[in-house]
Design brief:
alpha/beta, five-stranded mixed beta sheet, four-stranded mixed beta sheet, 8 helices, 11 strands, globular, disordered C terminus, binds zinc ion
C-alpha cells in the first residue's frame, strides 16, 4: 500500500527595509505568516542588523516550517534591480548597497529585490483590490513616497527597476527641497518624514493648508502619470493618506479634473484600498506572484 504524505509547501522569506525599521518573516504560499520579527533601524552597521534578523527568523522556524524557497525584498526606492543594489533614503550607509549579493550569500537562495511600490503592486494584484484591475498605479505615502504600476497585467521594471515611480517627478518648479537634491519633487509634499521636519509637529496636527497643498501636488502627479501611461485607476495608501483623510483625496480629485481635459482621461478613479496589506506580505508577493516570473 502506498501512503500519500502531504508535504507542506515551502514558504518564502520576506524582507522589508523601511527608514525606521527592518522586518523579516517566513510567509507561506497562501499568505500565512509563520514567523516574523523586526528591529528598529540602527544608526550604523545596518547589514549586520539585517543578517542577525534573518538568522533569528530562520532559527525560530526551524522546527515547524520547511526551509524557504526564495527571498522577496521590499526596499524603499530607488533600487537598481539589474545590479541588485539599493539606495534607500534615511538608511545609514546604504548608497548603492549590494543587498542582493549579501542576501544570496547569506541564504543561498534566489533573491528578488524591488521597491516598496513594486512589492505593493504585486500584492494588491495578488490578494488585494486590484485582483480584477489589469492596469493601475499604486502610490504609498508613508515615511517616504513610493509608487509603481502594472500595465495590462504586467509589472514592468524599466532600466533600473523603478518603473512607475512618481516620487521624484516635478510638481512645482520652484517647490520644496527634496532629499534627492532637487526642488519641487512630489516626495516632500507627501512624505511624513519631510512634512514633519517642515512643520515641526506630527502629521495629525497639520494645518489645512498643508493638506490642501499635498492634495494639489498629488492631483498634478496623477494627471501626469495617467496622461503618460494611459491608466485610469490609481490606488493611494499609507500613513499620510490615513492622517490627511478625505480632504486630501477630495482636493487631489478636484485638481485632477482641472488638469485632465481629454476624453481618454475622463473618469480617472483615485481609490484608497480598504485593507492595508502588511509590508511583509507585499515583499513575499514579489516571489508568489505569477507576474513576477513574466518580467
Ligand atoms: Zn526628489
Amino acid at each position: 500500500m502506498i501512503y500519500a504524505v502531504a508535504v507542506p509547501a515551502p514558504p518564502v522569506l520576506a524582507v522589508v527595509v523601511e527608514p525606521s525599521r527592518l522586518a523579516a518573516a517566513l510567509v507561506g504560499p497562501d499568505g500565512t505568516m509563520h514567523v516574523r520579527d523586526r528591529v528598529t533601524m540602527p544608526s550604523r552597521d545596518v547589514w549586520r542588523a539585517l543578517d542577525r534578523l534573518v538568522r533569528r527568523v530562520n532559527a525560530a522556524a526551524r522546527e515547524s516550517v520547511p526551509p524557504f524557497s526564495a527571498v522577496g525584498v521590499s526596499c524603499v526606492g530607488p533600487v537598481d534591480e539589474q545590479a541588485g543594489t539599493v539606495s534607500p533614503p534615511y538608511v545609514p550607509g546604504w548608497n548603492s548597497f549590494p543587498l542582493r549579493e549579501h542576501l544570496e550569500e547569506l541564504t543561498e537562495r534566489l533573491v528578488i529585490i524591488a521597491t516598496a511600490g513594486a512589492a505593493a503592486v504585486e500584492a494588491e494584484r495578488l490578494v488585494g483590490e486590484a485582483m480584477t484591475t489589469p492596469s493601475f498605479v499604486l502610490l504609498i505615502a508613508d515615511a517616504t513616497l513610493d509608487s509603481a504600476c502594472m500595465v495590462d497585467g504586467v509589472r514592468f521594471s524599466g532600466a533600473h527597476g523603478n518603473f512607475g515611480s512618481l516620487a521624484h517627478i516635478t510638481v512645482d518648479m520652484d517647490g520644496l527641497p527634496c532629499w534627492c537634491g532637487a526642488r519641487g519633487c512630489l516626495e516632500p509634499y507627501l512624505s511624513s518624514i519631510a512634512l514633519e521636519a517642515e512643520m515641526n509637529r506630527p502629521l495629525r496636527r497639520a494645518n489645512p493648508s498643508i493638506v490642501e497643498r499635498a492634495g494639489i501636488m498629488l492631483g498634478r502627479a496623477i494627471a501626469s502619470a495617467c496622461a503618460t501611461i494611459d491608466i485610469d485607476t490609481v490606488f493611494v495608501t499609507g500613513g499620510v493618506i490615513d492622517a490627511f483623510g478625505d480632504q486630501l483625496l477630495d482636493v487631489a480629485r478636484r485638481e485632477l479634473l482641472t488638469r485632465t481635459r481629454l476624453p481618454n482621461l475622463a473618469g480617472i478613479s483615485v481609490i484608497e484600498p480598504v485593507e492595508h496589506i502588511n509590508p511583509l506580505l507585499r515583499a513575499a508577493s514579489l516571489v508568489l506572484s505569477s507576474s513576477a516570473t513574466n518580467r
